[in-house]
Design brief:
It contains 16 helices and 14 strands. It is α+β, with helices and mostly antiparallel strands. Strand 6 (87-90) and strand 7 form a beta hairpin. It is elongated and about 95 Å long. The two termini are 56 Å apart. Residues 260-270 have a biased composition (Polar residues).
């Protein structure tokens, strides 16, 4: 429970004393017209919240005494967070800095040509470019406790643009979301000079003061830098999302109660190929790839279930007493039912609908969505994914299985940007966007369907 009574909070603030870092930071926030407030939490005590600038929005954060001390030691730089990234624009220096990671390990950056060790000559450091000892040598082996930097060579057409990768600056370390994540004991202490134990991308030399311009610059420069690092050196890197956006993505996932029964030996065996696709989806960690992997599990079973549906239609047609083998129109209907290409019958959307109908009931799907508040709100509330079929649990007149199949297929088409039946295609659903971040409940839905179709395709374990 949180209390925001001003009189109560003022008493608690006085108890902290005048030299408390958060009270000093509060004064600076008020001078700069940065929104902040105090709240009292029964179990956590007095807490200080700051709404740091983030374009047209604010990035609210709980500031601990240690956080406030770090900001004060860094002279509380004027900055704005950028988009949904762990990235900022430092207004005074017009420098953009963003936390980055390698897909393998950040130590992969150490082997890039031109990486040099930083030997800070003084405790107070304004930025990486001022931290470099002239005696630092290219190619020297970087150790885990070393501060380092890599200056990219400027191009003739933009000699003013300066790009660096290296240990996070002291200012960025003070404002980064990294301290809100769980860190090992080795990762917590700063490097000499207050530099961070994590790499950042730094862009300077450009006249940029607005959030949107800085965010656009970061996206364009980082996209080119990361692609060329991968192309030339095999180092795959990316910007780290903000802590809030990572939390939002995790909140979009279903948290089921854990089974308390002891695990038992398996009784079933599952088809190897779709099972490997399912495991790939579970391990990918990338929303769009995860979605497509589960969709491919469903796709694997298209021939089985679409044939099953077609056989049922054929059987119904042939059992109709009015069917006449000597009537050409009756035979044309039979041909129409069996018409198809490849190994399955019907369009891909129809095959998906048949597969879903073959492995799960409408009641199962409604219960799955209704059982979780996040899923229910995502599918029945305001739509966060555009140009896809809306699922309305209150609608009992229309075929819910068809609606689910249409939504699953619509998202698949937006990810691969294909045209549906020759018509116009919806906008491509891109990674690292708000829509991709909001895809969690849809991933849970298609994962649930993949689980159901794997169960439907299982056979008794033979040893």
């Amino acid at each position: 429970m949180e209390i925001e009574s001003s009189e109560f909070l003022e008493r608690k603030k006085v108890e902290l004393g005048d030299g408390e870092p958060r009270r000093e930071l509060e004064k600076l926030c008020q001078e700069r017209r940065i929104e902040c407030s105090w709240i009292w939490h029964e179990s956590l005590g007095l807490r200080f919240r700051v709404g740091f600038p983030n374009g047209r929005e604010k990035r609210w954060q709980i500031v601990t005494p240690a956080d406030a001390k770090d900001l004060l030691l860094a002279d509380f730089p004027v900055f704005t967070y950028l988009g949904d990234f762990d990235a900022v624009l430092f207004n005074s220096s017009q420098t953009v800095e963003a936390a980055i990671r390698s897909d393998i390990s950040y130590q992969a950056f150490f082997d890039l040509p031109g990486v040099r060790k930083i030997e800070p000559p003084q405790p107070e450091l304004p930025g990486l470019e001022d931290d470099v000892d002239e005696e630092s040598r290219f190619g020297s082996r970087i150790q885990i406790n070393d501060a380092w930097v890599l200056d990219f060579s400027p191009t003739p057409d933009r000699p003013d643009l300066r790009v660096q990768i290296g240990s996070a600056s002291r200012n960025f370390s003070a404002v980064s979301d990294r301290k809100r994540r769980r860190l090992t004991a080795r990762d917590r202490p700063p490097l000499p000079g207050g530099l961070g134990r994590f790499p950042t991308l730094r862009i300077s030399g450009m006249q940029v003061t607005r959030h949107d311009d800085a965010l656009d610059l970061l996206k364009r420069i980082s996209g080119a830098i990361f692609f060329e690092l991968d192309l030339q050196y095999g180092v795959a890197a990316s910007i780290i999302p903000s802590f809030a956006s990572e939390l939002a993505r995790r909140k979009g996932r279903v948290q089921r109660e854990k089974n308390q029964q002891l695990p038992r030996n398996p009784q079933n065996q599952y088809p190897e190929k779709p099972l490997s696709l399912y495991r790939y989806g579970r391990s990918s960690g990338i929303p769009l790839l995860e979605y497509l992997a589960y969709y491919q599990v469903l796709e694997y079973f298209f021939p089985s279930f679409s044939h099953r549906d077609t056989l049922a239609r054929l059987r119904n047609e042939l059992l109709d007493p009015r069917f006449r083998a000597d009537d050409d129109s009756n035979l044309v209907r039979i041909i129409g039912l069996t018409a198809g290409t490849g190994k399955a019958f019907g369009s891909e959307r129809d095959q998906l609908r048949s597969t879903i109908a073959g492995c799960v009931t409408e009641g199962h799907l409604r219960d799955f969505i209704a059982s979780d508040d996040i899923l229910h709100e995502h599918f029945s509330g305001k739509q966060k994914i555009k140009d896809v079929t809306h699922l309305n649990l209150a609608d009992t007149r229309n075929d819910f299985l068809t609606a689910v199949a249409n939504r699953v297929y619509d998202i698949r088409c937006r990810i691969v940007h294909t045209k549906d039946d020759g018509g116009g295609a919806a906008d491509l659903l891109l990674p690292f966007t708000k829509e991709a971040e909001d895809l969690g409940p849809d991933i849970e839905l298609v994962k649930y369907l993949a689980q159901k179709v794997l169960i439907a395709g299982a056979s008794h374990l033979r040893l």
